[in-house]
Amino acid sequence: MRWRSGRRSSNIEDQRGRRISRKAKGGGIGIMLLALVGMYFGIDPAIIMNVGNQLGGGQAPVTSSYQPTAAENQLADFVAVVLGDTEDAWRQEFSRRGATYREPTLVLFSGAVQSACGYAQAAIGPFYCPGDQKVYIDLSFYNDLKNKLNAPGDFAQAYVIAHEVGHHIQNLLGISDKLHAARQRVSQTEYNQLSVRLELQADCLAGVWAKHADRARQVIEPGDIDEALNAASATGDDRLQKQARGYVTPDSFTHGTSEQRARWFRQGFSSGEMDSCDTFQAARL
């Protein structure tokens, strides 16, 4: 990916030198393990995280002696460029539709972080919190993406950010609120199916970003799209469940299969249009 000449976003909040001190009464790693187990069985991890947050006592940020390496600082620089590209793309797209794009903040953290959606550790991976309109990422996730999920490459890393920004787009458009409201009216299986459509739409919106960024700055190099497709496939519910427990339970899927995730990213990239990403009306996912 040709990224070095890109504009760096100023919407970066670096919390890598902070640690969250949690008081007794549980929480911490135990809550995170419950959240991860719940995710595999179709339970929204945010629910478990928030319950743990209520039971786990207070949290206080503690400054540590954390010193990022040169490689980590370069990766943080890369993240700022990708976020800047998403801002440029979505500002233009919203303006074309007569709307104003509100840019999210991206929070870099190390180990654990407190968000408006609750306490989270790095093990849960990158996430978007609609409560504070922030994207959260521990850069160590990229080592897992490369080494544990076998999805290397800088464009794979960019896809991860673009996907989370896709959730921000959904929040701005009111799509996330509709999904949240549906939780009270539908069964868990039906809610999981809606969650899959939400996640696949975010994949598609990541593809739309990629098309915009390439039109604007010719960022894509040979093999980059394959990197993004591989990353999308690596995080499919079927593949993750198979790796975690040896079998899959389709009714518990919350993000979509590997094939679906890769196909919807390609859909967004091929069209470059938000209108092509209406997974909620799609007859075939």
Any chance you could write out the topology, listing elements then pairs?
Layout: E1 12-15, E2 18-22, H1 29-40, H2 45-55, E3 59-63, H3 70-96, E4 105-109, E5 112-115, E6 118-121, E7 127-129, E8 134-137, H4 141-147, H5 154-172, H6 175-182, H7 188-217, H8 224-234, H9 237-245, H10 258-271
Parallel strand pairs: 1-4, 4-8
Antiparallel strand pairs: 2-3, 5-6, 7-8
Characterization of this structure:
The chain has 285 residues and is α/β, with parallel strands linked by helices. It has one domain. 52% of the residues lie in helices and 12% in strands. It contains ten helices and eight strands. It has helices spanning 29-40, 45-55, 70-96, 141-147, 154-172, 175-182, 188-217, 224-234, 237-245, 258-271; strands at residues 12-15, 18-22, 59-63, 105-109, 112-115, 118-121, 127-129, 134-137. The strands form three sheets. The protein has a four-stranded mixed sheet with strand order 1-4-8-7, covered by helices on one side. A two-stranded antiparallel sheet has the order 2-3. Strands 5-6 form a two-stranded antiparallel ribbon. Strand 7 and strand 8 form a beta hairpin. The model is unreliable at 23-44 and 47-58 (pLDDT under 50).
